């Protein structure tokens, strides 16, 4: 009975009695019943899911809202049951009974779902929110049919039906508010509590935009990431997938492909809806034609005006649904892109921590490029990658629709497209090759840049800025920009085919079609051709993106599948505690090499056992393999044979101290928990307390990248030592930690840290040393020669052997004092080296206090606990300076400077070409209108003889030509000029910046500008500017066409334009700040990355890889937190703008219906207006998207210009009017006149009123405690720091008045390039210099001799060899003044002695030498000694006079160093 139809018209769909209407049975039996059934099914399913969840606690207000909702739905249920009773009892006539039965059931489920959803979830019920509007629409359609004959007899049922709908809408209004009424919290993402309408319209972003209008947005205003989008989880998922699949494509798809597939489904639906619009347009034009015809001929049975209004409404609804779907698709694509980048960057970082030495040839610049460029390319591909699937689908839909309009003629276009595919493939292949070459060029440039920044101090000391600049500019201008030009020309070659497709199809239809091509055929066809332009244009762009991505995937694949460190090189056995005497390290038959291709092993037949509480010393000459032994222990080397077993934990202090850009305390804690008592013990034991007192914020002072700006070399070494001590590890590895510190400090450190009574006395210790001072306190000594253990055993045993190398070493140097400046072995027979008479009594007291504390705590301290990782919002160290970031709109000056860099003339002609192209395009469309009208009048097509067709063809040809001209102007002229100017200006400015700038600025931040921002200027900015200019021209042409064809339309356009502009301004304020936050939060990722690569050995030794990976993920999350809202607000804007576009379509259509009802309007005019109106939606959206993309990317120009114009500059390299005399300096006389200076204006003076005169050819030794100002004095001499007062004269010339280069480290390249970077010397001179520094035999043994490659940062050489190579460089560049700053601290005693002989020999007789030395024996026979204390001259006289005065600073230091016995001064003969 319920399924029975009681209406006269039966079950047919369309009514024959009413105009443009369904039958009642269809409405009640199908539309309403289906809606109600689907709701019952969905509500039941959702309720079943919610039953399994636990209830939430509700506030009083939330309880009240729930009760009101339930009451309203209960009332609706009551009304519905009453209505059903009326129908059944009074036997009221209804067409179908089903909806009246289903409605109360649906309302019961609505009450149940409302209750469960409100009490068990935090967001509104999507099912309820979607049901009520759909049901109201269904009831509205039913009402029109039901009341066709008037309201008599229907009022009760109609009234009760609308009462149900009204009550439902009231409950809907309350349902739309979140059940969770707690205050919004930035700690969670707003979508967690947002309802379906808020998600579809992106209204959850509105509070952020509202705030952005009033005040600039900061990171604190941004919502957190959803837990599933955190980098750590994303990286872990991808890591697992990479383990299962060798292909990165497959791994990425299996990890992040789920939502992306959903986005693909959305895209297909949206594409289908896009092609429904031309069909609706055709229907509408047919309605206009039929209505006009019926009106003209007074037909009674003509179409109803309601049909026109209904089509207009359907077009509006279709457009809005399309908008919602397309932006959900975009949002998913951007989120997927974000996930891909996060996953890749996390895995690149993880890989960098475990990559083998064979692969370490990849410089840090290359790896930074993998993160910045390659990962970003794959992220960008996610945005439009689905067009690879969607494009062909759109093209297929377009041709099916065109076939229905034009017949077989449409397939002429298909032929042209098929012909264009092989051509595009050839171009694509050519582009791929060029892109690969370009990436190599970029890698090469970033590698050079990375080295330049890492060695900037040496480069400035040697005045080699121009030499390095030439190397970088050669790669940039001769390779990179030339390739960019070729890529630009290749991309221009595409574009003409799109226009040919439309022209050929219409031309062939004109020749072969019998049916005249009139307005109702041409304008839907043109609309389809316009829709076809997007997939055709984007398809080629996406193809090139796919090619770029393929290049990037190959690079990423090569890196991610690169060989890793041997997992079994070292076996680590975790032990919670070890007892005294237990084995901590065991090496049996160990043979080790750095790479698998090494012909000879670096270490052979190594057998070593270290027990808890033992102190083991490792001795040997430069290059003997001492540091390699420590590398083998921590697993950095390749184990060829044997086994290495470690029990418990390890800590490590490298020879070159690795300091992080953080506070001193953070450097010492190294991610361990802060234990104040033990921390203070460590600081005192490492003699850091006096140093920390001098720092501005004590141990909370930021030390900047590598710590070089705040800490001296000795202080850095002791901070690294303190880190190794604080970890309280079972095995402590110390690589020559005493070499960089002063004599008395070395003594203090040995007593209180390393020695038998030191903090580490209960731990196993391995100390590499070139000193003989403390050998008798070692439990075991190991002497290495050429990678083999020559001797091994306790000190007493080795000394008893007359042939022992250790014995010879001690006998040679014991009498002459220690090399590290500490007490000689025979000076004391106590367990702890005793202090001599001249010692500082405070130091003595301090040492005793520390020793007491150590004894008290000896048994009590255990391993340090790892501290928890800080939260994402906790600011990570930005270094000493915060990155420059503008606020507000990008200034007009930035655009003007960019245009000036790119050429204003070039820009003018570019705009002209694009404008003319659009004018010609409009002419071609208008030609079609005239052509259609002409054909209608003739009733046939004229084919190729038609002048309108010819005009259309010529206009298209002109359009292609102008488009190509514009693209060539942009890529080959404007972009190249701007890229060259901006890069060169920034490079010049950075090289002219003072050293203090590099101390304050992390290298990663500068590298980010030279990598990411330059890439944006090279390849992104030009494209987005072109898009903006083209889209602007299209929008203007659309508005002009509609206005001229339909002047009253301006009534709608003007207010909508005002609204459009307001919304855009509202959006841009927030968009800009978000893009800036994104850019600024990106730099710490690169800075952290560069820093981690520099300290890989330390990170691995401490086994801190998980902590560093988590910290990297934290920085990445912080960046993603800024990035996600910056793309989501594009969606927010687009939804609103496309709503404007939809309103334009609706108004134009309604206006047309009203016009046709009242006056005569031909279909051609309406077709022209609507075909353009249909394009406003996309065009308006693309206009703002392009404008915002330009503004977002021009931020890169803003940042580059800040570096190019806003950096502080040191003195000019040359002053032509103040050139020093020819041959200056001839004598080498140096005078300091009341000289004072400091590193930065906010810091204290490091040198105070220095007044000294150094005579020509004098040998001056400079000494003093750590931080006394020794290195600062030399930096002042080189004008690395400029004076605050006073001056320096060299041979009577004030050096501050002349150009820097008139006055005036190791890199990747060959040995020859490192010794002679300027290429000014013959090979024979280079070999002589190498012979002097005892490296000749080493270099001769290398396969390629002088042309042997040196890894980035000199990683392929030992520390001693690096020092000797730098010394060879100084010998080669002979000058009248030679400055040596700890030039031999890392070499063994024999080599040091030989080098000292060279310095004292005839080669340097007429050279003024200034030497800073911690080994006082190297300077004790110099002409005069300069002793500095706290930045002032304490003493300056000959060593004989100073040593004769027992109260002098120098006497005390020499006494501490064991150079003087009590009977009097002893000259050292070396």
Based on helices, strands and strand pairing, what is the structural class? Answer: alpha/beta
| Overall shape | elongated
Q: In percent, how much strand structure appears in the residues?
A: 5-15%
Distance between the termini: 120 Å
User: Could you tell me the radius of gyration in angstroms?
Assistant: 40 Å
Strand order of the largest sheet: 6-7-8-4-9-10
Query: What is the β-strand count?
Result: 21
- The low-confidence parts are 815-860, 1302-1308, 1463-1470
| Average pLDDT figure | 80
- Biggest sheet character: 6 strands, mixed
Helix-residue proportion: 55-70%
- Count helical runs: 44
Describe the model.
The protein is an alpha/beta fold and 1470 residues long. Helices cover 60% and strands 8% of the residues. It contains 44 helices and 21 strands. The strands form five sheets. The protein has a six-stranded mixed beta sheet, with helices on both faces. The protein has a five-stranded mixed beta sheet with strand order 18-19-13-20-21, with helices on both faces. Helix 10 (305-354) packs antiparallel against helix 11 (364-384), helix 17 packs parallel to helix 35 (1163-1206) and helix 39 (1323-1332) packs across helix 41 (1359-1372). The chain is elongated and about 130 Å long.
């Amino acid at each position: 009975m319920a399924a029975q139809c009681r209406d006269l018209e039966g079950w047919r769909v369309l009514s024959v009695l009413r105009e443009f209407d369904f039958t009642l049975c269809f409405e009640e039996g199908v539309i309403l019943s289906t809606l109600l059934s689907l709701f019952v099914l969905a509500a039941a399913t959702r309720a079943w899911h919610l039953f399994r969840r636990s209830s939430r606690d509700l506030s009083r207000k939330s309880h009240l809202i729930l009760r009101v909702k339930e009451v309203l739905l209960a009332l609706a249920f009551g009304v519905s049951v009453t209505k059903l009773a009326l129908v059944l009892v009074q036997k009221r006539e209804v067409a179908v009974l089903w909806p009246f039965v289903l409605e109360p059931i649906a309302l019961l489920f609505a009450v149940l779902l409302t209750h469960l959803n409100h009490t068990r979830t935090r967001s509104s019920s999507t099912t309820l929110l979607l049901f009520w509007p759909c049901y109201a629409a269904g009831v509205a359609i039913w009402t029109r049919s039901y009341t066709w004959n008037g309201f008599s007899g229907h009022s009760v049922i109609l009234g009760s039906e609308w009462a149900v709908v009204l009550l439902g809408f009231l409950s809907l209004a309350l349902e739309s508010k979140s059940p969770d009424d707690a205050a919004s919290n930035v700690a969670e993402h707003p979508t967690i509590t947002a309802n379906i309408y808020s998600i579809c319209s992106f209204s959850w972003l509105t509070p952020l935009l509202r705030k952005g209008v009033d005040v600039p947005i900061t990171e604190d205003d941004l919502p957190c990431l959803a837990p599933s989008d955190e980098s750590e989880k994303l990286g872990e998922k991808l890591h697992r997938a990479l383990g299962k699949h060798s292909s990165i494509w497959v791994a990425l798809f299996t990890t992040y492909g789920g939502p992306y597939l959903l986005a693909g489904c959305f895209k297909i639906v949206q594409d289908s809806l896009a092609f429904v619009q031309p069909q609706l347009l055709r229907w509408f034009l047919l309605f206009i034609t039929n209505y006009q015809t019926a009106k003209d001929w007074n037909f009674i049975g003509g179409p109803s005006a309601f049909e026109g209004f209904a089509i207009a409404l359907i077009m509006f609804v279709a457009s809005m649904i399309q908008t919602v779907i397309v932006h959900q698709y975009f949002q998913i694509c951007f989120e997927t892109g974000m996930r891909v980048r996060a996953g890749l960057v996390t895995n690149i970082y993880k890989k960098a921590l475990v990559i083998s030495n064979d692969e370490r040839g990849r410089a840090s610049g290359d790896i930074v490029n993998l993160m910045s460029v390659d990962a970003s390319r794959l992220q960008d591909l996610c945005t439009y990658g689905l067009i690879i699937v969607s494009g062909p689908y759109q093209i297929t839909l377009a041709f099916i629709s065109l076939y229905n309009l034009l017949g077989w003629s449409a397939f002429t276009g298909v032929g042209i497209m098929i012909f264009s595919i092989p051509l595009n493939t050839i171009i694509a292949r050519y582009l791929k090759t060029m892109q690969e070459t370009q990436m190599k060029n970029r890698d090469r440039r970033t590698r050079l840049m990375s080295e330049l920044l890492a060695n900037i101090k040496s480069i400035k000391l040697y005045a080699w800025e121009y030499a390095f600049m030439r190397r970088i500019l050669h790669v940039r201008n001769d390779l990179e920009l030339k390739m960019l030009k070729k890529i630009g020309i290749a991309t221009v070659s595409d574009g003409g085919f799109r226009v040919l497709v439309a022209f050929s199809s219409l031309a062939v239809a004109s020749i072969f079609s019998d049916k005249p091509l009139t307005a109702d055929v041409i304008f839907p066809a043109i609309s389809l051709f316009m829709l076809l332009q997007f997939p055709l244009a984007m398809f080629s762009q996406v193809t090139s993106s796919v090619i770029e991505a393929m290049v990037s995937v190959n690079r990423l694949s090569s890196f991610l599948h690169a060989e890793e460190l041997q997992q079994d090189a070292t076996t680590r056995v975790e032990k919670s505690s070890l007892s005294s005497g237990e084995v901590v390290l065991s090496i049996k038959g160990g043979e080790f090499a750095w790479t698998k291709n090494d012909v000879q092993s670096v270490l052979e037949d190594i057998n070593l056992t270290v027990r808890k509480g033992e102190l083991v010393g490792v001795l040997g000459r430069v290059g003997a393999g001492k540091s390699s032994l420590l590398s083998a222990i921590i697993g950095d080397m390749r184990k060829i044979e044997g086994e290495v077993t470690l029990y418990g934990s390890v800590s490590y202090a490298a020879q070159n101290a690795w300091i992080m850009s953080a506070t001193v305390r953070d450097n010492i804690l190294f991610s361990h928990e802060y234990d104040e008592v033990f921390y203070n013990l460590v600081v005192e034991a490492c003699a850091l307390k006096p140093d920390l007192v001098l720092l501005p914020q004590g141990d909370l002072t930021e030390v900047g990248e590598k710590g070089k700006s705040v800490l001296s070399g000795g202080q850095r070494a002791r901070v690294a030592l303190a880190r190794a001590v604080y970890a309280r590890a079972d095995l402590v590895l110390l690589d020559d930690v005493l070499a960089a510190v002063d004599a008395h400090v070395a003594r203090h450190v040995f007593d209180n840290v390393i020695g038998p009574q030191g903090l580490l006395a209960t731990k196993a210790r391995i100390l590499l040393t070139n000193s003989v001072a403390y050998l008798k306190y070692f439990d075991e000594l190991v002497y290495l020669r050429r990678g083999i253990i020559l001797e091994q055993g306790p000190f007493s045993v080795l000394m008893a052997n007359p042939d022992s190398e250790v014995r010879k070493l001690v006998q040679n140097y014991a009498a002459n004092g220690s090399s590290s400046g500490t007490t000689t072995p025979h000076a004391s027979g106590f367990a702890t080296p005793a202090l001599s008479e001249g010692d500082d009594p405070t130091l003595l007291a301090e040492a005793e206090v520390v020793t007491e504390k150590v004894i008290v705590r000896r048994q009590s301290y255990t391993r340090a606990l790892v501290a928890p990782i800080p939260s994402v919002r906790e600011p990570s160290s930005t270094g000493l300076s915060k990155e420059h970031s503008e606020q507000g709109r990008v200034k007009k000056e930035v655009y003007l400077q960019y245009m000036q860099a790119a050429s204003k003339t070039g820009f003018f002609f570019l705009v002209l070409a694009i404008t003319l192209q659009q004018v010609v395009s409009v002419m071609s469309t208008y030609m079609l209108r005239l052509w259609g009208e002409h054909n209608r009048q003739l009733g046939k097509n004229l084919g190729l003889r038609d002048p309108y067709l010819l005009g259309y063809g010529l206009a298209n040809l002109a359009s292609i030509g102008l488009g190509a001209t514009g693209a060539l102007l942009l890529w080959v002229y404007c972009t190249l000029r701007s890229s060259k100017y901006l890069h060169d200006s920034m490079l010049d400015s950075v090289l002219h910046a003072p050293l203090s700038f590099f101390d304050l600025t992390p290298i990663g931040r500068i590298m980010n500008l030279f990598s990411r921002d330059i890439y944006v200027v090279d390849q992104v900015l030009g494209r987005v500017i072109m898009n903006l200019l083209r889209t602007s021209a299209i929008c203007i042409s659309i508005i002009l066409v509609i206005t001229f064809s339909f002047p009253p339309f301006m009534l709608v356009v003007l207010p909508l334009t005002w609204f459009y502009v307001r919304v855009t301004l509202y959006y841009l304020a927030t968009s800009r700040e978000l893009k800036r936050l994104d850019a600024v939060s990106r730099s710490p990722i690169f800075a952290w990355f560069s820093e981690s690569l520099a300290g890989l050995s330390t990170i691995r030794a401490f086994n801190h890889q998980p902590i560093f990976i988590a910290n990297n993920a934290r920085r990445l999350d912080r960046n993603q937190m800024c990035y996600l809202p910056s793309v989501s607000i594009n969606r927010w804007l687009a939804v609103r703008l496309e709503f404007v576009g939809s309103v334009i379509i609706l108004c134009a259509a309604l206006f047309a219906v009203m016009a046709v009802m009242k006056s005569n309007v031909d279909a051609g005019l309406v077709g022209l207006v609507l075909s353009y109106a249909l394009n406003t939606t996309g065009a308006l959206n693309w206009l703002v998207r392009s404008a915002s993309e330009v503004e977002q990317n021009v931020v890169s120009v803003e940042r580059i210009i800040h570096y190019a114009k806003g950096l502080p500059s040191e003195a000019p390299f040359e002053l032509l009017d103040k050139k020093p005399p020819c041959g200056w300096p001839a004598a080498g006389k140096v005078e300091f006149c009341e000289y004072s200076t400091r590193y930065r204006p906010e810091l204290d003076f490091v040198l105070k009123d220095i007044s000294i005169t150094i005579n020509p050819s004098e040998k001056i030794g400079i000494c003093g405690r750590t931080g006394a100002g020794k290195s600062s004095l030399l930096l002042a001499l080189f004008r690395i720091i400029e004076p605050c007062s006073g001056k320096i004269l060299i041979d009577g010339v004030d050096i501050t008045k002349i150009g820097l280069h008139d006055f005036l480290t190791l890199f990747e390249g060959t040995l020859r390039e490192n010794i002679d970077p300027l290429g000014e010397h013959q090979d024979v001179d280079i070999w002589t210099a190498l012979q002097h520094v005892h490296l000749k035999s080493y270099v001769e043994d290398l396969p390629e001799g002088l042309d042997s490659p040196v890894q980035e940062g000199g990683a392929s050489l030992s520390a001693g060899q690096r020092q000797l190579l730098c010394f060879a460089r100084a010998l080669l560049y002979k000058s009248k003044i030679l400055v040596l700053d700890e030039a031999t601290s890392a070499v063994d005693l024999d080599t040091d002695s030989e080098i000292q002989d060279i310095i004292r020999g005839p080669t340097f007789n007429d050279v003024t030498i200034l030497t800073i030395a911690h080994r006082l024996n190297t300077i004790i026979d110099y002409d005069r000694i300069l002793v500095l204390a706290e930045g002032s001259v304490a003493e300056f006289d000959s060593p004989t006079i100073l040593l004769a005065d027992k109260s002098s600073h120098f006497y005390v230091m020499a006494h501490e160093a064991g150079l003087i016995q009590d009977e009097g001064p002893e000259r050292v003969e070396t």
